[in-house]
Amino acid sequence: SDFALFENEFPLFETRNGQIPESANTAAVRTAARCRKLQTAGSDAHTLASLGRTWTEVPGARTAAEFLDGIRRGGALLAGEHGTPWKLSRALLEIGAHFVVEQRWPALLAPLFVAAGPISAFLCHAQDSLFAAGWLRRLEQKAPAMTAADAPASA
After folding, report:
1. What is the C-alpha separation between 14 and 132, in angstroms, rounded?
2. What's the burial of 64, exposed, middle or buried (CB within 10 Å: 0-12/13-18/19+)?
3. What whole-number distance in Å separates Cα of residue 60 and Cα of residue 112?
4. Which H helix or E strand runs over 131?
5. How many angstroms separate the first and last alpha carbons of the chain?
6. What's the rounded Cα separation, in Å, for the pair 19 and 81?
7. How would you label 51-62 residue by residue, b for 16+ Cβ within 10 Å and e otherwise?
8. Rg of the chain in Å (alpha carbons)
9. Highest averaged pLDDT of the listed ranges 40-49, 54-63, 132-141
10. d(CA 19, CA 88)
11. What pTM does this model have?
12. Which of 22, 69, 130, 132 could cysteine-pair with 82, CB 3.0–4.6 Å?
């Protein structure tokens, strides 16, 4: 199953995604802790407005190798924004606007972009939250809760 693949084959989980709702990111943190996975963060940017607004940092790292070693040691600090439907709506509208500028003919669909963008964003966020809650519930039924001593080092 997908869950077994993630649990057995991936050494770390992205637990703060700048386009995902905070509730889904929180479920990802709990899932990573239960699976004893390292954690990272990323902006998941598709437009310049979101670029670099969510990130992973490793204090003291001066090179890419030091950064990766710091993550492997559990020294990553996760920072930045969680996603919101409004943030995703803005990204969808920006992408749609660039499409119109590049191709021209989609200008006829501009009213649809404006109406469908926010609706799609709210539906995506709801789906992300439900999906994350379902995975976490499945994991919690499978394995007992960990104690603080069982949790991975600083994440």
Report:
1. 13
2. exposed
3. 48
4. helix 110-142
5. 26
6. 8
7. eebbbbebeebe
8. 18
9. 54-63
10. 7
11. 0.77
12. 22
Summary count for the chain: helices (H), strands (E): 5, 4
Nearest to 92 by CA among 43, 42, 47, 44: 47
Handedness of CA 26, 29, 35, 40 (dihedral sign): positive
Flag whether pLDDT at 154 surpasses 50.
no
Report the distance separating Cα 129 and Cα 135, nearest Å.
10
Q: Which of 91-100, 110-119, 125-134 has the highest mean pLDDT?
A: 125-134
For the cut 80, the answer to whether the pLDDT of residue 148 exceeds it is: no
| CB contact set of 69 (below 8 Å; sequence gap of 6+) | 61
Torsion sign across C-alpha atoms 7, 9, 11, 13: negative
pLDDT band at 107 (very low <50, low <70, confident <90, very high): confident
What's the mean pLDDT when you consider all of the chain? 86
Residue type, 94: E
Instruction: Please give the Cα distance from 140 to 34 (Å, whole number).
Output: 8
Task: Say if residue 149's pLDDT is above 70.
Answer: no
Residue 82 identity (one-letter amino acid): H
Q: What pLDDT is attached to residue 155? A: 41
